[in-house]
């Protein structure tokens, strides 16, 4: 049983009529476009099913777009504001740089594992789709519950607030940025980007491309300034000696440093959320991952090297905005430029999060684990407008809470729990379904080592932040009764009729339709 409108609900005459009308519209749109393409080529139209045509029309994300999604989603505000999480637990600047490099390599290994998963299970939804295939509906629903209701909306809200804060900071100078102004600008930014994603996949990808290039250019300027200082002989802060002899550095502190580093690389799996819309995913998904991860690692390591060529470890740790402190020490006027860099970076990152987050909802709805309207597409634009509006609405609600950032802290362990479950799914399917088509097949040692590290990363916050982790665990487990409520409620006639009526109203208002776009499984 599920949210899907079946049984008595499907007998609702108005809903059925609206559904048939919208499906005819989408078929007509696709067939018309195919006819035009065939006419231009001087060929007859291929005999293909409407659903297959729709799937082909949705594949608008190119290889370059895929690289931009990964790079743009990973590089947000963290590298400009707070790269000190690694340094404070490393003991020395040399060790900190090594950990930044190791974190990038480790994230690259995880991304390669996801390349195998994404080409083996060629569906949008990322972790949700992989866990569903391997472990069934309940673990998959908990993944959907955590991502669509908490992690993604909270991430959008936090990144939006960071964008708004640094956009307004140059205007207000040394004065405090107004609380209400920050919230309003963040809400406007989220609505703008959600609107672009609703209107056009191509438009959203153009935004992603432009702002990814812009943020890399901003980081390049920071790196160029830092390396200039380094080549002039300013290397006194670069050493493997403990910068604070009184602080004891051991396995525990190094583990925390690695945890902070890996968290900064978060977003490397976002392209897997939109596999259904990626052109030639069997080729482009692994290539995009293989290109994007070295780029991010290269820029992250060099940016931190540049900071440490100018700022002492004490200055880095004490700063609330490392890039601003870095700029002011070289050229005071950079105090006004760095916030613009942060705004550019966060705007692009927010666009990537908004675009990909809705695809988890869309896939969950197609499996009956979310109201069916979440899986509907606009009959002409072929964008998941209801799912985008849902994630946008949740983000706007979270903006009303002063301490929305705490939600991210509560759920940090859940992020790695989901990633670990996805890699465990890879290993499980290697054993249970060895004959599945795998265009990419990584050496078995890589997912084994990565899974072991994921388990470690799940346990780190349990030891260091037991209260926050406990709250996060309660939030995750609260999805279990919701799952069984959905199962029982799906067969309850009045509830079916309610969802049928809501679906009817929203579908007609947004001109959306349920279209089967599942990719065939190999």
Please characterize this protein's 3D structure.
This protein has 522 residues and is mainly α. The protein has a single domain, classed as Amino acid/polyamine transporter I (Up-down Bundle), CATH 1.20.1740. The protein contains 22 helices and two strands. The chain has helices at residues 13-41, 50-58, 63-74, 78-81, 84-90, 93-120, 127-135, 137-172, 179-199, 201-231, 251-264, 281-310, 313-318, 322-330, 338-366, 385-399, 405-410, 412-432, 445-464, 466-477, 479-489, 493-510, and strands at 377-378, 512-513. Strands 1-2 form a two-stranded antiparallel sheet.
How many domain units? 1
| Number of E-type strands | 2
Shape: globular
Ranges where pLDDT stays below 50 over 5 or more residues in a row are 4-12, 28-52
Structural class: mainly alpha
Write down the CATH class: Mainly Alpha
CATH topology term: Amino acid/polyamine transporter I
> On the 0-100 scale, what is the average pLDDT?
83
* Biggest sheet character: 2 strands, antiparallel
Helix content: over 70%
CATH architecture identity? Up-down Bundle
Overall radius of gyration: 24 Å
Q: Quickly count the helices.
A: 22
Element order, helices and strands?
Answer: HHHHHHHHHHHHHHHEHHHHHHHE
Major β-sheet strand ordering? 1-2
